[in-house]
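Sanity check

After download, print the first record. It should look like this:
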Amino acid sequence: MCGIAGWFGDGSGTLDAETVLPAMARSLAHRGPDGSAWWHEGQAHLAHTRLAVIDLEGGRQPLFSHDRRFAIVFNGEIYNYRALREKLRQRGSRFLTASDTEVVIEWYRVHGTQGFRHLRGMYAFALWDSQERCGVLVRDPVGIKPLFISTQSDGTLMFGSEAKAIVAATGQSSLDAQALHLLMNFRYLPGQHTLFRGIEQLVPGQILTWKSGRLRKENIGPPDERNLELAPLLEQSVERHLVSDVEVGAYLSGGVDSALLCALAATRADRPLRSFTLPIGDDPAEADNAARTARELGIENLRGDASAPRPDELMHLVQHLEVPKANAWQSFRLATFARRSVKVTLSGLGADELFYGYNAHAIFFGLQKLLGGSARIPANIAGRLISATARGSTVPWSEAERAGLMLQTGGNWSRAYGLLRNLWDAPSLRQWIYGPRMLDQQLPDAFDTLNGLWPERAEPLEAFAEFEWQNKMVNDLLWHEDRASMAVGLEVRVPYLDLDL
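Expected structure tokens:
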């Protein structure tokens, strides 16, 4: 786990590599407390900060191929790198290190960009091919690891693990008011938005190739089809996520998802598993339940402190997040606590999305059955009565009002979803919430934005899950998990988001 930054291009002479690359690296120092380095040659400019987890001595970056044709800066982990390495050895490939990063270089040499579909892990990386004079940016298909980009007027392509690395290079940043409006509705940034005008995210699973100022986009292909059942896939995923040259711990809540991961990891780890818990959660007995689970599994459970944040701590967190997020504090506190003991930990993030485990799934499924049958007209009438009654209360946009509006959607599933997830965009509410600066802006309609991103699926609940997988998962849950953990130099691994699983 690391931080990467740099650019492909000349930078119109405004970017002095000897000054700017160190500045970009410093902006990401928290992501890589074990060292930093940078390199530039011609149109390639690469910077890296390292959290050493695999090949502690030989994995320093930027890393070069044995013939110096390729250079790479890499963030993440490739869990199946040993199997890929053996296949490459059988073909005659040479290696100078035991690093998973060098495997990525050689795999690209042999298979090209479409070979990336065989990588299993979480990653974002920048690779330079000195023979073809082209740069390649890649982000894993699930979007576990972030990668931000900005295309300059002269064709220079800038990139960084966090937007602040690009800001450090250009010295310029301005607020995107349209993105801020979407944030106020979704409570995260859907699609590829950031709060910085001119900076966006690389799409999960996208390969962006730069050559002479021109860009070519392609997507990582789907994995090979497999006929495995759930249990073997989950066991395989946990085994993969334990690959490390340092100790791997685990987050443990009072729920089934993290308990299952700990049960599988405890029997497969090469040392006793340590788990980490905060006394926070929907269940008041969350921490006690986690402790009981740990006793049942015969693993150590460490309980941290869940005290309320101080204002300076919130400012520090927002600086790392680069976007205000109401639900990130718990992740930050848990990561800070775990980092005192380990460098790497497993998380149960993604299980509720994978198995439809939220109350919102059940509500939406019930609405789907209600509006999909003969009850649609009575539901519409009932919805009008509920909404009219609720609007007479002193609380604007109450749950009752939204429930009534959901019953009136009549199969407009993106709007029903938006109401369920508390999108509020309406002229009256804008006047109530915003001041002159925002009201003077040309702001998008949040429901139109949602509709434009809504998957074209016949089954509404599947569309719900797919939308959240592509947007809420990437830009809410994974976003704050990455930033909260990397703020303290901790690598968090998410076995439920394994590509095969």
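If your output differs, re-run the checksum step. Summary of this record's structure: The chain is about 40% helix and 15% strand.
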